Amino acid sequence: MFEGPESPYLVPFDGSFRIAAASTTPQTDGRSYKGKYRRERTEDLKKLQRVLAAGDRHAVLLVFQAMDAAGKDSTIRSVMQGVDPSGCQVFSFKKPTSLELDHDFLWRTTCRLPERGRIGIFNRSHYEEVLVVRVHPEILDHQKLPGEVNLETVWDERLMSIRQQEEHLARNGTVIIKFWLNVSRDEQKRRFLARLDDPDKNWKFEPGDVVERRYWNDYMSAYQDALNATSRPWAPWYAIPADDKVYMRARVADIIIETLQGIGLQYPVPSDRDRAEFASSRAELEADQGKSL
């Protein structure tokens, strides 16, 4: 199966990840995502996406999770701008609909998984069910679950379901890369205030985001458990420092490109039958004297 590329920000697979030790600021000298480097990375990704589509053997799923104002939307927009829109799909998962609540918690994201040859992006994802729902367990009361929910076991059970599904997808050709954009509480505060100060950014401000900020430590605990339980070689998490957006975007782009370069993408090789049909088509085209009705 696919294994994610090495990175200083790769969440280890042994359950030893600690958020307190994960920096929110750059820890390497990697280049920023701007100027010539950005253009080069955009071209690299564009070429790889074409080969992915032509080969039609792998699907790619990129999962983005973060606290509010970490930069998920802008990172997706910036990094993926060079990709053919017909080969990429983005879904954002918010409050479940009544239809979604009539299914298990993985159903709504499963319905949005990318086809072979395409890149799928989840802006928030099935992980919300072990993050926001864990921080606010009263949400479970509306999920129509059978029997009494045991809060001592339900999160581990859901994490096991996620882990098993991701392994199944990986065995069947879906390349999964998960990014946690690790923004600091101080930087989040600065960005919230900037949205309030700039009239052109007022639309981005949600009072509810400030309410959720009160639960910061609970969210960090939930994130730590989720990343430790589900970071695996075939579905790795990367805890990317998010206080510097330009640096963050560069590291996300690098990991996506290294991932695509590492899975052996190649254009399909024509079979003997294909070549015979090509030769027949060429002969017909070359014999065509431009006749028309």
Tell me what you see in this structure.
Helix 1 runs parallel beside helix 10 (245-261) and helix 2 packs across helix 10 (245-261). The longest helix is centred in the N-terminal third of the chain and has 21 residues, at 35-55. This protein starts with 34 loop residues before the first helix and ends in a 6-residue tail after the last helix. The chain has a single domain (19-287), classed as 3-Layer(aba) Sandwich (Rossmann fold), CATH 3.40.50. The model has no long low-confidence stretch (mean pLDDT 94). The chain has 293 residues and is α/β, with parallel strands linked by helices. The chain is built from eleven helices and five strands; from the N terminus they run H-E-H-E-H-H-E-H-H-E-H-H-H-E-H-H. Strands 2-3-1-4-5 form a five-stranded parallel β-sheet, with helices on both faces. 43% of the residues lie in helices and 11% in strands.
